Give the backbone structure.
Amino acid sequence: MRAMQHVIVGNGIVALSTAFRLAQRLKGSDTVTVIGPCDRPGAATMAAAAMLNSFAEISAYSLKSKEDRYHFALSRRAAQQWPDFEKELVDAARGVGSACDAISRGEQDRGTYIINNTAADEWDDKNFDAMVKALEDFKEPFTFVHPGEIPNYLPAQHERAARAIYIPDEGWLNPRIVIETLDTILSGHDRVTVIDGEARRFRKSGDAISGVELADGTVVEGDAFLLATGASASALLDASDLGIAMQPVFYGLGVSIEIRSEGHPHTKCVRTTNRGGACGIYSVPLFLGKNGPKDHLVIGASNRVINKPVLYGRLSAVEHLMRSAMQEINGHFYAADLVRVNVGWRPTSQDTYPLLGKTSVGNLCIATGTKRDGFHLSPVLSDIMATLMTGGSAEKEFDMFAPERKVIRDIPRQDAVEMIVNSLMSEQYQHGYNPSNVLMNAQVRETYRKDIEALHDRIGAKDWGIHPELVNMYREGHAK
Ligand SMILES: Cc1cc2nc3c(=O)[nH]c(=O)nc-3n(C[C@H](O)[C@H](O)[C@H](O)COP(=O)(O)OP(=O)(O)OC[C@H]3O[C@@H](n4cnc5c(N)ncnc54)[C@H](O)[C@@H]3O)c2cc1C
């Protein structure tokens, strides 16, 4: 049998986990080549808190379309697969002589408290109710807890939670340790080549891709290719001129911060519901190795969807995270050290769903657009992508996320307008908005509503609506 050369472009969690699955399945003299810059500028994976959340991501508008329900099903499957996947990674790392014997504290790195506090507005309450309903409907274990009993939770009095739940099975990992482990496994594998470089474009010969041209001019040839460069996938496709009509992937610029809180370490994840186009505020313990410090945590995260790569986060994003951490989570964080500011680009497609699977160019697959949960989904996505790259097929529903699909328009216009206005109001409240009376509030809402209706009219969105995160991309003409 002829040897297969698999070439993976990208080196975030989606690319590396797929390379890992492929390496497990190599036959005869098959090979895998991974291409990506080792400093990974803008990689979402390196900025992620790497929460493994399914239910904690539910909001009042979740699970309304078949696409969202299927996405949720993949997310739940990923939650089940993570413990085994983590074990496979540790075993494989040992297999190449690494001293790595843990990438998390196992069971202890599970357990997520969701707080319903007064730092934003009533939209939080609706999202909280929707989350509780989903937990009940799917019979997922959870308990209501008294907010005062949440470990290491000491918010400012005026922003304390009135309600809280504990979801015991939702956890987190340190993404840097996972990536380090994958790097070690792949570079230690005798039939995997890891290239520290950047792809400039794909080369096509006839109906198929023949190779990848790198920024230094060298060409990597192969038989089966995967484009998994996160938010910059569209840029690489545009430069390659392959005739693939994929909706744009934007840069969901997200900022998170790592802090060290001596004397007040977190043992569990404490977070709000998702809020106004972003993920609310969360605080997650950071595992730094068995013998590493125990008092580091990640606070996240902001979200600003833009059409070009920007390497830095805004001061206002960092200021908001620091203030929210001190006021909404624990006042003692005022004395915490700021260790690092993480900036990453969430790969955000125009319809906000992932772009996954085979393309019209026979030997090219794409895996991007995972936006907010690509880390969590990676055990499932890597399995399916490796299967597709080796000639297998995926379950029928997976086609919903085919890279060249039409833009999914699953939000009716009126729902979208309501969602966007609610998001904008929530955002204002998070940034200190304090209307002098109830009439003013109604006027502000009405101003937003008119503006958003006008935007829908202008772009011809009659029976479908814009996703709240994409408003600026439609307004500026980058999404059509
Ligand atoms: C602040 C923040 C918090 C998040 N929190 C979570 C969370 O708690 N849980 C969760 O599941 N997800 C979270 N996410 C989302 C998650 O990080 C992403 O969904 C996921 O990491 C995307 O992985 P990726 O491999 O597709 O892209 P990336 O991680 O962005 O990786 C793409 C890689 O491709 C490389 N690359 C780019 N261009 C080229 C090129 N031309 N040639 C070669 N290589 C190239 C880049 O250097 C980069 O390393 C968060 C994201 C952010 C920004």
